[in-house]
Amino acid sequence: MSEKANLSGVKVMVIDDSNTIRRSAEIFLKQAGCEVILADDGFDALSKIVEHSPDIIFCDIMMPRLDGYQTCSLLRQNETWRNVPFVMLSSKDGLFDRARGAMAGSTEYLTKPFTRESLLQAVDTHRLRRPS
Description:
Elements: E1 11-15, H1 19-31, E2 35-39, H2 42-52, E3 56-60, H3 68-76, E4 86-90, H4 95-104, E5 108-111, H5 116-126
Parallel strand pairs: 1-2, 1-3, 3-4, 4-5
């Protein structure tokens, strides 16, 4: 992906209970032109998703109340959100964790700490895949 990524107009939701991770992702994404919606856990995300209608979702796995697997599963059961690209974010990089993410319906799995490039590459890759 080019250094001057232009992802203008792409709505990205970042769900993570870590303020540091949310803010880092927000900075990287806004610099590339994305509109960013932040949520601090799955419940917060579910309350914001209808209003903001994101094009792609990045979600931490380990969160209180509603974890990333549960959040992804709930969205996959809803006709409106079934095809929105859902990227799991986790510090765990094991085969089991990746498989569990895939079983929940995730589109991709990024390991933390993620880089600016990996985050923007995921947005660029998935932004055109969502059927209207």
